[in-house]
Amino acid sequence: MLSDVTSEQVTAALRTFIAERDWEQFHTPENLAKSIAIEAGELLEEFQWAPEFDADRVRLELADVLTYCYELADRLGVDPEAAILEKLEITRRKYPVEVSRGRSAKYDRL
Amino acid sequence: MLSDVTSEQVTAALRTFIAERDWEQFHTPENLAKSIAIEAGELLEEFQWAPEFDADRVRLELADVLTYCYELADRLGVDPEAAILEKLEITRRKYPVEVSRGRSAKYDRL
Amino acid sequence: MLSDVTSEQVTAALRTFIAERDWEQFHTPENLAKSIAIEAGELLEEFQWAPEFDADRVRLELADVLTYCYELADRLGVDPEAAILEKLEITRRKYPVEVSRGRSAKYDRL
Amino acid sequence: MLSDVTSEQVTAALRTFIAERDWEQFHTPENLAKSIAIEAGELLEEFQWAPEFDADRVRLELADVLTYCYELADRLGVDPEAAILEKLEITRRKYPVEVSRGRSAKYDRL
């Protein structure tokens, strides 16, 4: 079952893929940040003219964004899921339940 | 140790955060795709004028992209890491080692 | 000579193109903002792995970004070039010559 | 009246602004492409959670995208409006009226 996979195993698989192709030279943090933005644009294209979407296409585009995110996390020496949880604590404090409930306003306009 | 965290646990933490604030109404797949692109832009801003970067700032911006990616994966009923591995198999076939080694060209220009 | 073209003429050409295809229904401000981000990603792809670029390809990708920008300006009832000059005055005040000369720092870190 | 402004005058104003601050060194084509994507993300943020928008905020964010687009056009030695019209001819051929009328499908799926 794939859901048993750990971040370490995914990162190891990505490292092997990159190393086999000698692509470390291209995958600098700056180029990975560009790649994340490029792939985020392709994901958004699935929703360009309507909110309806093709789940298979969206899943594969999302995977491209995630792949470059995991690679960048690896360059930073960071566990991706630990980074999510670290940031969630910060966001929790910026958006206390009592003031943000049911409101989409940005914290500096709450 | 945070690296023992599973995707399921991260997803559960994000669900609780969203539910407490009654934000499911805003976090549609389309709005999450927009949010991923927006956060990808903020991450890229850390590299706007030079390849040098502040690792702490980059980690926190990357976490924002990852957070919305995990939320979108949850809306799709997909494990994020399984999606990365599924796509890696496809990419592996599009970029065979022998033709892509040391080259950054897109597969349709290899 | 194309450089004699005015914003009004470009906007009129775009309006005709859209109306002939009955596309006004899709080109809402929100969808145009998504389209600008999508095309900005395609433009960035020309620079994904290296600063070197193909001028012809970049020109055509840049044109796509500009096209949706002009359409959005038209929806807002704004002249695109007037908007640039309006914003330039604001930016001029945020980045006084004496403090910003030769520095790429954002105004809030100057 | 601002609508009498020409692309050349806007480009000249941007050149002066950049030269006064000695910013040509930062505004390489690659960095301008990144900047366009970054500002496109900020524009999209105005539509993050709903299609409703604040016209003043959108106009100013759109101006930022346009500004970097005009700068990149200048680096390429291209008139921005000529580029729009050049691309419009190409797009016209990819989307003939008879097959694209009232449909938002991409040309390769028409």
Describe this structure in words.
Four copies of one chain form a homotetramer. Chain A is mainly alpha-helical and 110 residues long. Chain A has two domains: 1-78, Orthogonal Bundle (Helix Hairpins); 80-110, no CATH class. In chain A, 65% of the residues lie in helices and 0% in strands. The mean pLDDT of chain A is 95. Chains in contact: A-B, A-C, A-D, B-C, B-D, C-D. At the A-B interface, helix 1, helix 2, helix 3 and helix 4 of A face helix 1, helix 2, helix 3 and helix 4 of B.
Radius of gyration of chain A: 17 Å
**CATH fold naming of the largest domain in chain A:** Helix Hairpins
Order of helices and strands of chain A: HHHHH
Structural category of chain A? mainly alpha
Assembly type of the chains comes to homotetramer
- Stretches of chain A where pLDDT is under 50 for at least 5 consecutive residues are none
Number of structural units classed as domains of chain A: 2
Count of DSSP strands of chain A: 0
**CATH superfamily grouping of the largest domain in chain A:** MazG-like
Q: Main beta sheet of chain A, described?
A: none
Q: Which architecture name of the largest domain in chain A does CATH use?
A: Orthogonal Bundle
CATH class of the largest domain in chain A: Mainly Alpha
- Helix segment tally of chain A: 5
Share of helix of chain A, binned: 55-70%
Please indicate the percent range of residues of chain A in DSSP E strands (runs of 2 or more): under 5%
> What is the CA–CA distance across the termini of chain A?
43 Å
Shape of chain A: globular
